[in-house]
From TrEMBL:
The lineage of its organism: Eukaryota, Viridiplantae, Streptophyta, Embryophyta, Tracheophyta. Residues 23-113 form the PB1-like domain. This is PB1-like domain-containing protein. It holds the Pfam family PB1-like.
């Protein structure tokens, strides 16, 4: 499992089919915002992140808590999925199993919403290395290597973005997310 750097969050997801029968998925997690129900259910504010190369069969309540901790959230955390225009909690393993039943080689992206009473008190636990010509390498301690031939073009773009990062204000734009 690898936490994708914020610069790469809107780039295409990996094509897991090329890795054989490994049941990898990408978890899109919205965090730092809140759920509102009027006039329609929406996740307001916050930030989107992506965890790539997640083994779908390892997903559990404990695993989701670990992902929340990687983002810097401590204490109680609540996870939700948006299903049939309703935010449904992911509190029990039976709900996780129901959520991941939709996995197939053609359905490899799962979206989760994190609601936490405490804001992160630390930076996400990732290390970012910019290597000229090699792209951005994100290391979360897992040995999964995201850089393959398919991502070469992405890494070229990231190199150019990384060079210009110091020129901006570094702020991440908040967004509202809901069932469109």
């Amino acid at each position: 499992m690898s936490l994708r750097h914020q610069v790469l969050v809107d780039f295409p997801d990996p094509k897991y089919a090329k890795y054989g029968n490994e049941p990898f998925v990408t978890i899109v997690m919205y965090h730092g915002g809140s759920i509102v129900h009027s006039p329609k259910p929406e996740y307001m504010g916050g930030t989107k992140c992506k965890f790539d190369f997640v083994d779908v069969f390892r997903i559990s309540v404990e695993y989701l808590n670990t992902l929340g901790e990687k983002l810097g959230y401590q204490g109680p955390k609540s996870f939700y999925r948006l299903h049939l225009n309703t935010f449904r909690p992911l509190k029990y393993q039976t709900e996780i199993v129901s959520f991941t039943e939709g996995y197939s080689p053609h359905n490899t992206v799962f979206t989760i919403y994190l609601v936490c009473g405490e804001t992160p008190n630390v930076e996400p636990q990732t290390e970012i290395n910019v290597n000229k010509g090699k792209g951005v390498v994100v290391d979360d301690g897992d040995d999964t290597d995201l850089a393959d031939d398919e991502w070469d073009e992405v890494f070229k773009i990231v190199d150019s973005v990384a060079e210009g990062i110091g020129q901006g204000d570094g702020q991440v734009e908040s967004q509202n997310h809901g069932d469109a």
